[in-house]
């Protein structure tokens, strides 16, 4: 690329961090990591725990991948990324066993399955391997928090409707008739679909508003040009 | 083929990463990852062990509420009963817990049973007392049964009443249960060894009965002749 060609300024650390929170939310925008998203979101606590575990794996893996990026030839990059990700998943697995066995039982095999979460390998390959450690880690933490937020949004709705509680606190008293299907596997699909629909409507409205503004500006420019002529 | 046609191949060969570089990258990454895994394993080992022990004790005290201390034992395949040590138990051994009261006397014995439920395996813990030769307590270790339906086994008072004195007497020759523990249709329980199922949760109720029966059939014939050995601890 020639020196005179326009270059896009690299995103700031804050932009790296906020990218995954909303604009490119891993669950509602990129639709990644659906296996834990649908499987463990039966309660807000489980969702938060899975989100925090994934955030740790994501941030630690992206940091190490980024720190070692000049050492890792592209021919063996997938093998090394998977080893790095599996390492931090194992660390998380041990840590959760040490923190709470109840939580470990509740999350079940989905902790180990973080290895296969395409969000983690996707960020390692698409971002961490091409950026310095600070930017890679901040982006990973942002993506992880966006993932956690999405999981809690799904898990919260499922727990409120399916058990009448939020983070274990009963909301509606003993006479509440739980909507049991919400804590069963179909409930995960229903709530996920509801949130995706909401995000889609918001995005479409924003696009329409932007198009209308564009049209109004173009019309104003045209009329201004005609008037000037 | 002209010389110019070969140029890309020559270039590709020239830019290929040397084998040593590939091996070095893989070795360094593996070494770093190995150190991280072993370090975290050593750091969390004691806490994880404590958690497992506490979880077992909690489960035992739930089925034998008078227990003040709990000790794990093994009923070996050869009929012997020995304290459980570290590591995996020998093949065919059944793990159980001896529960002692405040004076150090044997209060009862708790063991786990498991059977296939509606969604997944239902793992249950039951408490056994020598004096009545019966099961005196019941709790669920883990299950993934349908919320609101199968999980009534931990809340339904009528169902839990089955385990106040569930008969698990052995035959005269101590070779097996005199009467198999059986789950019967709701409201038809007539014998001490029968379990009255929850109406609408029959599959999960049956899993509980089968789990207890299968475990008791193996454990009690080995344990009962040597149960005095637990007293002396």
Automatic annotation (TrEMBL), chain A:
Q: What's a GO biological-process term for it?
A: electron transport chain
Q: Which residues cross the membrane?
A: 51-71, 78-97, 103-122, 134-156, 176-199
Q: Where in the cell is it found?
A: Cell inner membrane; Endomembrane system
Q: How does it sit in the membrane?
A: Multi-pass membrane protein
Q: Which GO terms describe its cellular component?
A: endomembrane system; plasma membrane
The enzyme class is translocase
Q: Which Pfam families match?
A: Rnf-Nqr
**Principal cellular location given in the protein's record:** membrane
Q: EC annotation?
A: 7.-.-.-
Does the record's keyword annotation contain Transmembrane helix? yes
Q: Which InterPro entries match?
A: NqrDE/RnfAE, RnfE
Q: Does the keyword Nucleotidyltransferase apply?
A: no
Q: Which UniProt keywords apply?
A: Cell inner membrane, Cell membrane, Electron transport, Membrane, Translocase, Transmembrane, Transmembrane helix, Transport
State the superkingdom. Answer: Bacteria
Subunit structure, interactors included: The complex is composed of six subunits: RnfA, RnfB, RnfC, RnfD, RnfE and RnfG.
Q: Which NCBIfam families match?
A: PRK12405.1 (NF009070), rnfE (TIGR01948)
Name the protein family. Answer: Belongs to the NqrDE/RnfAE family.
Describe the function of this protein: Part of a membrane-bound complex that couples electron transfer with translocation of ions across the membrane.
Q: What is this protein called?
A: Ion-translocating oxidoreductase complex subunit E
TrEMBL record, chain B:
Got a GO cellular component term for this one? plasma membrane
* Keyword annotations from UniProtKB, A to Z: Cell inner membrane, Cell membrane, Electron transport, Flavoprotein, FMN, Membrane, Phosphoprotein, Translocase, Transmembrane, Transmembrane helix, Transport
Instruction: Outline what the protein does.
Output: Part of a membrane-bound complex that couples electron transfer with translocation of ions across the membrane.
Which positions carry FMN phosphoryl threonine?
Answer: 202
Name under which the protein is recorded: Ion-translocating oxidoreductase complex subunit G
**Cross-referenced InterPro entries:** FMN-bd, Ion_transpt_RnfG/RsxG
Membrane-spanning ranges: 20-43
GO terms under biological process = electron transport chain
Q: Where is the FMN-binding domain?
A: 117-219
